[in-house]
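Q: Got a minute? One more chain.
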Amino acid sequence: MGNLKQNLRGKYTIGYNSADDAAVYELSNGKLLLQSVDFFTPIVDDPFEFGQIAAANSLSDIYAMGGKPLFALNVAAFPEHKLPIDILTEILKGGQYIADKAGIPILGGHTIKDNEIKFGMAVTGEVEKNNLKTNDSAYPGDCLVLTKPLGTGIISTAIKKNIVSTKIIDEANKVMKTLNLNSSNTMLNYKINACTDITGYGLLGHLLEMCIASDVSSEINYNKIPFIDGTKELFEQNIIPGGSKKNYDYVKPFIKSDRNITSNNELLLSDAQTSGGLLISVVEQDCKSLINEINSNNEFIAHCIGRVTKKRKNKIQIT
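A: Always. Here it is, folded:
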């Protein structure tokens, strides 16, 4: 869209020209309207679970900006000439299950015929002005908190190759189906300078976006970054999504790593995620309390994985 010339009218605050998680529009009541859309092809075999994962992923952008989802619209594509319509029904049921957990209705949507299944949601939300979290305000000295483990891209690829255990699949599905609702609500109680969610660009890609937008750099500790059990073993078997490799090619010029960090370590941190956790840039004095409160109510353990620094030649230092 960067090549399009638009006559942008109204009180839009954040649009396509930003690398943020949702579009933001100012309402007359002083609140901000949030909108985001996301959909993709199945990454798991079970249609009900796919619907849950796609819905949680779509809702994540609203949570990343400190917002409250209001309602959603389904976006679907389905090959009715090849597959029974019951599969689509199960996908929609999965989406509804997650919408119910988020406390929002699905008010409609649109389905087209296609050769491949696709599903997701357009989500509308709102946020008070003083609660809006963007990715462009990280400040030197902030702690970087990650709320979910990494590995869903690698495990999803292993699922397609049928070379992964049920235990690992179940854990990855649990990560992807879990809403970022609790982490989002909790962070509103603290001094948060910036936030984004970890999805298709991987941890390094989304951290890079935050650093560029905020005009800062960052340091992260490889050994403090959580992974879903089995992720590293699958990676060692060369189970790497094509999107993760593209992510790494993009971020590599912006990275500087200590000698003990290999290019494979960097590639692993570039793994493209689905419905990943929040990456929160929180002032240092609030970091421990934020993590403790998130972990008291969360499915997964949040970790401080590094800190924001003043702008340097390299955007990301990995130690």
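A: The first strand starts at residue 12 and ends at 14.
Q: Perfect, thanks.
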